Amino acid sequence: MTLTAWVNGRFLPLDEATVHIEDRGFQFADGVYEVIACFGGTFLDMDAHLKRLQRSAESINIDLPMTLPELATLIEQTYNHNPFDDAMIYVQVTRGAAPRSHLPNAGLTPTMVITSRHLPMPSAEKISDGINAITLEDMRWKRCDIKSIALLTSVIGKQEAAYRGADETFWLDADGHLLEGCATNCFAAINGVLVTHPLDHQVLGGITRRMVLSVARTHGITVQERPWMLSEAELTECMMSSTTNAVMPVCHINGEVVGTGEPGPMAIQLRNWLLDEFDKLKRHS
Ligand SMILES: Cc1ncc(COP(=O)(O)O)c(C=O)c1O
Predict the structure, then answer these.
(1) How far from chain centre, in Å, is Cα 212?
(2) DSSP summary character for residue 249
(3) How does DSSP assign 13-69, residue by residue?
(4) Residues 36 and 158 occupy one common structural domain
(5) How many domains does the chain have?
């Protein structure tokens, strides 16, 4: 199936959907993005994603070229051109095209691109074995709360993980606390409590992270948002979350076993509770 993308006001076959070579997204990574899951035609937490996009854009002084309800309609239309059962919507907004200069001209028209494609699911093997991760000292900028398209450090982190036979890199602050992954938030089960780094400039406020914490609280799991380390006594499990992973158990870090080396009960429960929520969406569609 040929994918159809929305680019600056037009629906086009993906291969014909292009932007200007002087687009500031291409020249400076001067833009922001979102990834939204869609199950059976129902979008997962669309409002939260759109609000985060608006917050990210405002943080770098880009005015979205339309209102959030208009954007939601456009996303639905893009999905209708590419209606996968499990879909992944990508929205990117850049400051627009202009002769290359670090200081942006005033009054540029933002570039906007939307695609809808199949949402890749983690393999059954990864879910049953858990994933391998490595840790690296955080080398990213100091505004990781902005969902910026400048993802070079995430690319480096993923490459280093792959080189070492792992799936994800978790970034460590200078004191050795786990912040988040290249494209995931991370959590630990410590003495039966679900622990994750608090929201600040060092982590992205993941929409899935928020769902995980909410589902955990609903089911009576105590949640602590605080800095944490792998060396903590009573740490029995690690896991990560993202739109494309839901919740994934992390069973090896830096070649060492986490807990029993098998997906732990908290990660399995949280994953199942989240998948139940996604199934409810499919049934209501
Ligand atoms: C750095 C980072 N942290 C966390 C996440 C997870 O966010 P979400 O749950 O909204 O997909 C992502 C997703 O791309 C990310 O890039």
Answers:
(1) 13
(2) E
(3) EGGG----TTBHHHHH--EEEEEEEEETTEETTHHHHHHHHHHHHHHTT---SS-HH
(4) no
(5) 2
Pocket test residue of 35, 168, 204, 247 for ligand 1, highest count of atoms within 8 A of CB: 204
Range of the domain at 62: 4-118
Q: Is 147 a catalytic residue?
A: yes
Instruction: Dump pLDDT digits (tens) for 60-83.
Output: 999 999 999 999 999 999 999 999
Verify that 106 and 128 share a domain, yes or no.
no
The pTM score is: 0.97
Q: Check if 185 has its Cβ closer than 6 Å to any atom of ligand 1.
A: yes
* 169 φ, ψ (degrees, to nearest 5): -110, 130
Domain-terminating residue out of 86, 118, 150: 118
Residues 88 and 191 in one domain: no
Same domain assignment for residues 108 and 249: no
Q: What is the pLDDT of residue 128?
A: 96
The answer to whether the beta carbons of residues 50 and 68 sit under 8 Å apart is yes
Query: Looking at the chain, how many residues does it have?
Result: 285
